[in-house]
Amino acid sequence: MAVTSCLVLKTKFSPMSAAKMMKIAVGTLRDSINLAAIKAYIAETIATLVFVFAGVGSAIAYGELTKDAALDPAGLVAVAVAHAFALFVGVTMVANVSGGHLNPAVTFGLALGGNISLLTGLLYIIHQMLGAMLACYLLQFVTNKAIPVHALASGVGAFEGVVFEIVITFGLVCTVYATAVDPKRGSLGTIAPIAIGFIVGANILAAGPFTGGSMNPARSFGPASVTSDFSSFWIYLVGPMIGGGLAGLIYGQLLIGSSYAAIPESESYP
C-alpha cells in the first residue's frame, strides 16, 4: 500500500463481508521512500513538534505561573485546552500532506485497519518521535526550565495506568476513524480535526489526575528523551499502542471491513 493521507479518501468504497476485510499491508520501499512520502514524513515531524511544543509548554507555563505548585482543577483545564487546540491546529495544518497523525498510536491503529502500510507507518512513527524530541529540546532551551515527564499519580499502579491509557487511546483512534477515515462519515469529515482535538482534551480532563492522559507515545517520548527519565515511559508506549491497535482492528477491520484503499496511491498523493 502506498504512502498517502488517511484523512483524504479518493477511492471508491466497496462493502464486503467480515470474511473479506481489509488486509494489513507490509509495504514496499518504493511506496515508502519517494518524494510524496518524504514530504509526509517532514510534515509529521513539524506538526508533532508544534503539538508537543504547545502541550508540554502549557505544563511548563502553568508551573512557572504557580511556582511549581501541584496541578489544580483550573490548571488541568488549561493544559487540556492547550493540548486540544494544539492538536486541532497540528492535524489541520498537515492533513492534506501526511494525513495529520501526530501520534504513533494513531498511525499504528491506521496500519492495523489497513489504511497505511506497516513500513510507512514505522517511518511515520520515527518522525513523530523526532518532532516530539526536538520540541522538548527547544522548550528546554527557550525556557531554561525542567521538562515535565509523564508519570503515574500516587496510588495508581502500572497495570491500572496501562489500562487507563488503553481506554482513552482507543477512544481517540475510534474518533479518528469515525470522523476522518470512515467512507460513510459524510459531513463529519469537515470537522474531523475539531473532534479529534476535543476527544484529546476531554480524555486529559478524565485521565490527567491519574496518568497525565498521554494517549501518544511521541508526546511522552519527547520529555523522557530530554530528561533521560524513561522509568515510566513503557506505560505510555504499551497502553496507547494497544489502545490504538484495538481501535484499528475493531473499527477499521470489523466495522468498516472494506476492500477499498482508505488512502490514495502515491501517484495521486495530494
Automatic annotation (TrEMBL):
- Judging by the UniProt lineage, the source's domain of life is Eukaryota
Q: How does it sit in the membrane?
A: Multi-pass membrane protein
Database matches in CDD domains: MIP
Entries under InterPro entries matching the protein: Aquaporin-like, Aquaporin_transptr, MIP, MIP_CS
Q: Print the keywords alphabetically.
A: Membrane, Repeat, Transmembrane, Transmembrane helix, Transport, Vacuole
Where, per UniProt, does this protein localize? Vacuole membrane
Question: GO terms for molecular function, please?
Answer: water channel activity
Spans traversing the lipid bilayer? 40-62, 74-96, 116-139, 151-178, 190-212, 233-256
The primary location reported for this protein is membrane
Q: Name one GO cellular component term.
A: plant-type vacuole membrane
Query: Can you tell me which family this protein belongs to?
Result: Belongs to the MIP/aquaporin (TC 1.A.8) family. TIP (TC 1.A.8.10) subfamily.
The record ties this protein, via PANTHER family, to: AQUAPORIN TIP2-3-RELATED, AQUAPORIN-8
Report the protein name in the record: Putative aquaporin TIP-type RB7-5A
The species is: Senna tora
